[in-house]
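Bench notes, bay 3.
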Amino acid sequence: MNIKRPTLIVAAVVLLVVVAAGFFMMRKKADQPAAPGTASSASTKHGAPPARPTLTVTVAKPESAELTDTLAANGNVMPWQEASVGSESNALRLAEVRVNVGDTVKRGQVLATFEPETINADVAQAKASLAEARATAADAAGTADRARTLEKTGALSQQQINQYTTAAQTAKARVEAAEAVLAAQQVRGRNTQVLAPDDGVISSRTATVGSVVAAGTELFKLIRQGRLEWRAEVTSAELGRVPVGTPASVTSASGAQVQGKVRAVSPMVDPQTRAAIVYVDMPNLQQNSAIKAGMFARGDFQLGRSNALTVPQASIVPRDGFNFLLLLQPDNRVSQLKIDTGRRVGERVEITTKLPADAQVVVQGAGFLNDGDLVRVVDAGGAK
């Protein structure tokens, strides 16, 4: 096909115009400024785009407070002293038991009695033997006196006189022996009554009416004076902080609380546990019905008072087995600080780690933040 030369020239010119127009449009679009409010505009005018706060939080300054210094311990509640009350008579039948477990008794009070018939018969026999011995002794003494009056007359030999004197002395010794037997039988008669050796509370009873018991058999156990004590286990490292007289607050498993005072500190430390027993006197048993001997109890020794730096409990964030505070920085970002805690009073916790002098800790929202997060701070009543 033949194409005329003028036509080719026209087509070439048109192509050049189209190419030039396209190049011009692309150059104009590249050089055109971005629209206001777009990311490119913000980037051109201010650099990086402004960051948005991660969370709205409240902050507080650490406060100094005077706290009670305590030492926690565990131990058992036990009787101060326990008396064993037993039978002093042998092979007698128990006739009456007058007390039971939990009864409060006074010193010398009759707790139980044995049948007295056998003892009464033995006492009567001892009295008769004593009367006979006294009569024999009186006759022997009279004979000896008469023999001594005839000594100068020679009517009796010296040997006979000595025999009468010896017989009188022997009869006198038999009287003393009979008196001792009677006294022993009278003691047995008194032992037919089992008496309380001290004021206190009956903690155990094995006495049974009608039983025949041997001498020395335990019939009752008595908590002397109704006194209990808390035997707290304190480590050897802390033992020096608990002198005699230190007040203590004891809490039973039921939640009942009583106040006591350190009576004594054991002179020995257990070589296995490296702990010593601290004996804490507790009030009268009858005044503490919720505290019983044999209970396990925890308690705190009141060692005094000291100043401490405290923060709200809500500001402490536990993570990975440690405690942290989130401190507010001047640029409204937070920095995470690992801390050690101490005593707790109400909603405040002692911080033993040193904090900056102007520290502000995040309270509300602390658990949702990470190190370096940007926050917006408001007060407790609303936005600032």
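Next record in the batch:
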Amino acid sequence: MKKIAIVGLGLLLLVAFTLPAAAMEYQFGGYWRTRAYTNQNFTGYDRKDDAIKIDDTKYKTGNAMDITWIDTRTRLYFTAVFNENLKFVNKFEMDTVWGDGSMPTVGADGTTISGKGRNYGAIGADGANFEIKNSYVDFNKGPVAGKVGVQGLTLGRGFLFDDDASAAILSFNGDGFSFPIIWIKAFDIDKIQKRDVDFFAISPSFSASGLTVNPFGMFMFSDNANGYGPTKGFDKLEGWYGGLNLDGNFGPAAVWATGIYQGGSADLVTPMTDGTDSVDFKAWLAAAGFNVNFGPADFHGQGFYASGDDKAGDKDVEHFFVPTPYGTGQYYAWSEILGEGVFDAQIPRLANGKLTPGAQPGGGNGNTAGFMAGNVGTTISPAKDLKISLDAWYISLVEDLDALTRIDGKTTKEKEIGIEANVKVTYTLVPGLNIDLIGAYLFAGDALYQGDGAADPYEFGTRLSLSF
């Protein structure tokens, strides 16, 4: 795969550089960052409790999710501009962890075939960490614009979707408005049987006098959704989302709000014990935020509420979710530890597996309880090249965890995840090159972990980054 990708890139650049100079314009850009950070107590208890006994045969490893490492990401962008109405966009990515040369190719007899690992961060480098992030054509025909290929797109401020995907977009644009029609191929395994999962969406936007109104809707469909991990257990699936984004800028103040309702139904592969063979989606999410700029400092805040199932196992699915794998699709960055911040924290599942690492609001990855969070903070600029951000978050489940089983065998009901404090200092070393110093601490509530050796998760680290 690496060789094919490199050969393809080479041919692309060769064609680009051999075309007549007057016929094309070439745009190059990219992003680079190196991070050094540590995550501690991310299992919810002290790593010194290396073997906490759960029963006669099972033990938990205290440091299973602790990380201390340095990693590097490089993104390279190449765009071939044919004319003002046509361009071909490509984005490439390379990731590695310093010192990591893991996973060499090994033969059946145990001998190394390739001699090199997958990551280029080890001595000798030469890794296979070459990824194609985007590749699409972007064209205009009068007021109509189109994008076809693997591209990045956002719906519902990321509460619904914010990621790269194989998609086709047709947009009708005018003065102060746009009306995109979107098709996303979420999953395709037709070579086995018809198990495709498709998303169809519209997201018109209207702007005037500092106010932007963006109603949107998305329909998800599959004849047999059981073959796709996030919709496993469902057969025929027909779901929909309807929502609205509002953004207002009024001098030094800015406000925003988002509301989404999820409806639809799905047939179950295996009926419930009472014979119920289908479920109905009845979920919702609401979010809002503000920012007031006072010159050398601002005051900002936000909050969201995602509904949860008040009775697990019934016909109504009331927890808001988007059927995409963890780490892809739905993406809304909020706090540093719990909300996939700068260091992409991997906080553990909440008790009873209700909340996945770095889960998104609503939690489409097993969080049937739903959760809510609120934030206040400030960003101070004491000097031209220096910014200091201070934020505090309160996070709680919407519904109590039912019969939470503690390590000591007792059961209880809890909903408080905790209070998270974030500090971020950003300094411009030289124009174009920034360094961030980041620290975060989660004062864990009882819903995060209960039992012997409970400890608060925390992280700190630094990031050096540039864009070009």
